[in-house]
Amino acid sequence: MKPAVLRKYLSSRGPAPNLGDYAATRAGFSWALARSELDGLPRGGLNIAHEALDRHLARRRGDKLALRWLGKDGTVRDFTYADLARHTNRFANVLRAAGIGKGDTVFTLLGRVPELYISALGTLKNGSVVSPLFSVFGPEPVQTRMQRGEAKALVTTRHLYERKVAPWRVQLPSLRHVFLIDGTEGSLPADTVSLAAAMAAASDSFDIVHTAAEDIALLHFTSGTTGRPKGAIHVHEAVVAHHITAKYALDLHADDIFWCTADPGWVTGTSYGIIAPLTIGTTMIVDEADFDAERWYDILRRERVNVWYTAPTAIRMLMRAGAEIVKPGTLDTVRFMASVGEPLNPEAVIWSAKTLGQPFHDNWWQTETGGIMIANFASQDIKIGSMGRPLPGIEAAIVDRDGDTLRTIAEPMKSGELALKAGWPSMFRGYLHEEERYRKNFVDGWYLTGDLAMRDLDGYFWFVGRGDDVIKSAGHLIGPFEVESALMEHPAVSEAAVIGIPDPVAGETVKAFLALNPGYEASEALRKELLGHARKRLGPAVAPKEIAFRADLPKTRSGKIMRRLLKARELGLPEGDTSTLESDEK
Ligand code: AMP
Questions:
Q1: Is 374 near ligand 1, meaning CB less than 6 Å away?
Q2: Are residues 442 and 474 in the same domain?
Q3: Rounded to 5 degrees, what are φ and ψ at 111?
Q4: What is the tens place of the pLDDT at every residue in 447-471?
Q5: For 471-494, what is each residue's pLDDT tens digit?
Q6: Looking at the structure, do residues 432 and 518 belong to the same domain, yes or no?
Q7: What is the CATH number of the domain that holds 322?
Q8: How far is the CA of 410 from the centre of ligand 1 (A)?
Q9: Which residue's CA is the nearest one to ligand 1's atom 5?
Q10: Is 347's C-beta closer than 6 angstroms to any atom of ligand 1?
Q11: Strand pairing partners for 77?
């Protein structure tokens, strides 16, 4: 393993970082203290939507801009905290009038439109459970999720309803109400209601339903890179972690303009694209449009974004788009940039520092953890290629699991399973209808993440790969991330995915699938050059033996490369669940 590169990249812009002294903050931290930064409901209990919205009104911050929505067609709509509080009250009243109550699940199947944000928070006010789905899901993944979640209500558009829900609706008798955000009354499909009309008739005041910290609030389905998506259950107490992790890991301050590019169909787009920034009182930018490099740079500049949270897949697309389109002044207001969802290849950190003038800070978490667990912080050195250090309140370790016992691996840079001491507020409380599967993740009071990682002497964690993706070749344990990162250092390579191919001698050999940057053509000569490059960088035991070129790599809707699928296709095995594939759009 090459030695870690240490770089200091402290931003001189804006307020001092929230986590000035990592060690001292960790030492003085308690979740009770974090909880005391929030208010709780006036008559006891805890409700995410109250912390996100109404609490600010009580403090006379209702006039502050909470959400600026940028429509695909250039429309801009602004919502203050008071506006959002009113709209969400109306939505909660609509649910109540429809007989949808505490614990009932409300699904959204919407693009990033204001109604999505209003429905999600209004649902929480009503004590109901919200489950946001990607609008690009096909009918099958929509149906399985809504059936498993026993949907009581759905908020969607007429078009999405007719294409993706109406054909199978009779099979879901629990779905009593479908609210359509478009279409006028009188011309709506049978058994649907106009949301606008229902909202117009509803009162804009609402007494938030009493919810306790442990009441269920959110149902999130995992991305499904390695198997059937699971429904992770989260409770209202999660808001304590959303709030404090956004402060520490994203360095969010109340005066910030924050842009989380994730869709709420993925947990990042809910925890940090709806809840956390509102609890802090920031202004969030929501862009309805799909990725477009020039549009994104334009948004950063025009909206004067201070903190930007995105994902490696988008960063790789920005890299592919080239530096020429970054106009002067694009990042003048940006103070902090972070990335999550997949390993952030060193190449991407170096590129951002050079081209954008500041680096992306990688952080790690998963649907089950509900919030950021490990991060490179604004005030701390970045170790390029590392996911950073655990948040205050989070204890992380590298372990070896042997049935019902755990052994902690103390040796630095030795890989094992990443484990987290159970008990932080946003920890999932179950997999929907899969109690046994849930319990299997816990051993000796530790939550086992299923990811392999290493820890260095300074306490930084290094991602090796998902447990299911790791390759065992001739006695070596090979993490795809290391191989992919080395391949990405080559200027021809835009994206890389590495899998193990069964081999009678070595057990497995390494095969790489590569997408190329503009200006490069797949050829035998390039294949040889890349094999040579990898051998030089990684040594023959770890370097790929085979390379295949692909125009695109298969990804989930949240942008994660599906190595499992590449492997199944390569070996002619059943593809398993592909419902979260990006190409579900069809
Ligand atoms: P999901 O729950 O669908 O968001 O997927 C979570 C998984 O994404 C984690 O278990 C990791 O395998 C991967 N992941 C998320 N963030 C990172 C990161 N910063 N580095 C490496 N892998 C990551």
A1: no
A2: no
A3: -70, -175
A4: 999 999 999 999 999 999 998 888 9
A5: 988 888 898 999 999 999 999 999
A6: no
A7: 3.40.50.12780
A8: 23
A9: 366
A10: no
A11: 69
